[in-house]
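User: Hello, can you help with two protein structures?

Assistant: Certainly.
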Amino acid sequence: GQAGRDIGIDQLVPTDRLPGTNEWVVFQSPITGGDQANLERPCVVAVEGGCEVRVNGVAAPVATLANPGDYVFLPQSSYDANGIMFITTNRKAYLFHNTNAAPAQNGLSLGIIPSLPCASSDRVEIPSAEYWADASNATQVSIVTRVGATLSVLSNGVAVAPSTHSVPGTTLWQAHKYSFTSGATTRLEVTSDQQFVVTVNGGQSNRGGTGTFTGFSRAPVIVSPFDSPTATVSYPVTLTLSETNGYATNGYQWYLNGSAIAGATGDTLVATVPGVYSVTGTSNTCGVSPQSADV
């Protein structure tokens, strides 16, 4: 870049943990100027050959990466007017994204951006979101949720209202932005009833940083029919579920002693015989959830 001279590093995810296809939403930094056009070009690196890279929903790929390790930088012009870009691949790939984090133009904030999750936890807490910025430079909080999801953002326990934006090229995801300037500790709490990703970036002087936060999907939770560990029940007994956030469930599968119970796909189950019961959630978009704890 114009003045950029620092290296950027991040921890790789094992290739066997990468999804076969990917969707990413990336955001421009709120810090403009300098050599931003070169500093903020997302880089897609193929893990599998024949990796087609598409941007903002356009059918024609902008590049086809023939071999593992091949890569392509995407131009700054691919961001929309709100500084948002939507990227997809049909094969396993990494996405590296550097933001123009520091006003001095030489504080890289390189990160590996995770593919949008099929399921996530329902809550992310960031205890010191202001860490990379200060009282003179803004910290940007960028959130991606499913369209129609219920989102809550608390800053030091007080509700804030991020702006909401469409994501170019998809009707499944939407973006939310919230910026703040503070030299004091800022604790962020983000919750949603569907899967989401939070990215925080900021900078000051010649240092910058970025972090992407999500979580792991929660298994369904069976409400125990036992009032106490030593209590007994009489059969039949109805098993119910508590609400499962971060995972849009379309159905369930119940198990008895580890074997699927035929036709037991509702959110309740009438248990007629003693045994060990468990359940998984199923989703049209996310497949099968983790399995619940045994009851």
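That covers the first. Now for the second protein you mentioned:
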Amino acid sequence: VNERYHSMSLISSASNWTEDCELVFKDNVYVGRVTLGEDEEFKFRANGSWDYNLGSPDAVVSGTAVKLYPDGPDMKVAVAGTYDIVLNLAENTAVFTLVEEEIPVVSTYDELATFEDGSVVRAQGYVLAANSRGFIFNLNGTIDNSVFVYQGADQSMYAPKIGNIVELVAEKGTYGEHAELTNIKSVEIIDASEQDWTATHLVDFAYDRPVFVRMRGTLEKNGDQWNVVVGGATRKGSIEFPAWDLSGYIGQPIIVDGWYVGGTTSTLSVVERYISYGGVDGGGTEDVVPGDDIN
């Protein structure tokens, strides 16, 4: 069939086969944009009638022409989403092209916090600190916009390096009361140079988001927890999933510089950036970074 019908449309099970999505005739083909769900079945038909309809037994894959047959089987897309459709009656084919939806960009912590958990967002910034479960990510170059990126035990997609500038596509999550990024979809390294952030950069201080803190006390190990007992404090500091073995610190006075990522009534959790030892008064200390031997 190569003649132009009065109208061509797509109709689907989503409307219980009662509502037609009209296609537009342009340059000898019919075009349109539709959103198709998982397991949603559909067909093409002419003039809003089943007298002439087209289907196919073939899988509908984005970008691949599907051969159509009169009174053919109901069709399904391989991936749910929004598709641009080109229906060619001269060849009895249809091409479905999945439309890449624009991913919202977040540039501040407060923007990130407004999204529902599971929302996919795009963000760019510096890597400020890392542990064995993820890293602190500095949105938009300002310290009060730091957020924790949770990777879990698998860091094969990106091994964080302090000072890297990276662009992430990831899901918004919540850990405790804090917004975080999790379930990373993609990572692009914008600048691979490693830079050091000193305390002079870390001037803003608040507890409703990851912020830079310093703890002075004695290290103890309780089960899997590495805690810092701070004299006069009602809570202990907790070093979250340290990136290296801290056994050589147990019982020693230490200084921990890092990013606060949450707390309980008994602990305040920190992703460490520096751990210093040799005294708690600031003299004769030695900075230890991941990979160094502390024993």
